[in-house]
Write a structure and sequence with these properties.
Layout lengths: L8 E4 L3 E4 L12 E7 L6 E9 L11 E5 L8 E5 L8 E3 L4 E7 L8 E8 L3 E4 L2 E5 L12 E7 L4 E11 L14 E6 L6 E6 L8 E2 L4 E7 L8 E10 L7 H10 L11 E2 L2 E2 L1
Parallel strand pairs: 1-3, 10-12
Antiparallel strand pairs: 2-9, 3-8, 4-7, 4-9, 5-6, 5-8, 11-18, 12-17, 13-16, 13-18, 14-15, 14-17, 19-20
Length: about 270
């Protein structure tokens, strides 16, 4: 393990994984490792443990320990002092975009350690047949420089329909359907390569968006200057057989935000915009 600075190993980005040294093999005795995790400004670091097994040392974790603090140094406020092997499920969320982790082992009884993933509180995997989707910090303004990825999964055999109640996303000085400033991109599937159903910005209320399957992928990004409240939307699962007539609306929606800048006709096949 290389300590790259006084703050230990620097981990940056809005998602990643962190493991104790040698995981899933036993960590060494007399180990000492420090990490700081920094996500984009305006977000909060969320750490979710998939595995945890440290030598137990009672409530004070006097043998081996993982200490998690709410900031960038050992002086920051304590969030968790962890040891033992019976603490999952566990998610730890910082109040800001920096989290400090300090792992120590003593002279004996090593274990397998821990494995965790970090993300931000703006990423989410939403499930169920109805629910509410809010942009980060809504109804306050979203921050600069965020990228929030959300998937919505309804029951197999249904489609996801997203209906906006409010929408206000910075669109830049020129009305532009490519949304070069901030944008919400909605895709027909479960990842960033799925077909886009809409790239949204501005302050016109978008029309409802409906997927062909039971998963919708949403990616909200903001650039470095200029913020707005974002959006509030509701999703519902809809029956596959009753949904086809809604698809032309999705084509309108792709054009809808700045329709006057589009000159080429829009085609859609099997209900989807090309
Ligand atoms: Ca030990």
């Amino acid at each position: 393990m290389v300590l790259t600075s006084a703050y230990g190993e620097q981990l940056t980005g809005n998602a990643g994984a962190i493991q104790s040294p040698s995981y899933p093999e036993y960590y060494t005795n007399r180990a000492y490792n420090v990490w700081t995790i920094t996500t984009n400004p305006g977000t909060r670091v969320r750490l979710t443990f998939d595995a945890f097994d440290l030598e137990d040392g009672g409530s004070g974790c006097v043998h081996d320990s993982l200490v998690i603090r709410d900031g960038r140094s050992k002086k920051a406020e304590l969030l968790q002092r962890l040891c033992g092997s019976n603490i999952l499920p566990l998610t730890v969320t910082a109040t800001g975009n920096v989290m400090y982790l300090e792992f120590r082992s003593d002279h004996s009884v090593p274990r397998t350690g821990f494995s965790a993933r970090w993300s931000t509180d703006c990423d989410d995997n939403l499930t169920g047949n109805t629910g509410t989707l809010l942009s980060i910090n809504y109804p306050s303004n979203y921050p600069d420089n965020v990228r929030c990825v959300t998937t919505i999964t309804t029951d197999p055999g249904t489609r996801v329909r997203l209906t906006f109640d409010t929408f206000d996303v910075q669109s830049g000085p020129v009305c532009n359907t490519s949304c070069p400033d901030d944008s919400l991109v909605i895709r027909n599937g479960n990842n960033h390569t799925a077909r886009p159903l809409g790239r949204l910005c501005g302050d016109d209320l978008p029309l409802p968006v409906t997927t062909s399957g039971n998963v919708m992928y949403l990616e909200f990004t903001s650039q470095s200057s200029g913020v707005r409240p974002g959006y509030q939307a509701r999703w519902t699962a809809v029956n596959v057989t009753e949904e086809r007539e809604v698809f032309p609306n999705e084509c309108q929606q792709v054009l809808g935000i700045c329709a006057q800048t589009f000159s080429s006709p829009v085609n859609y096949t099997d209900g989807f915009c090309e």
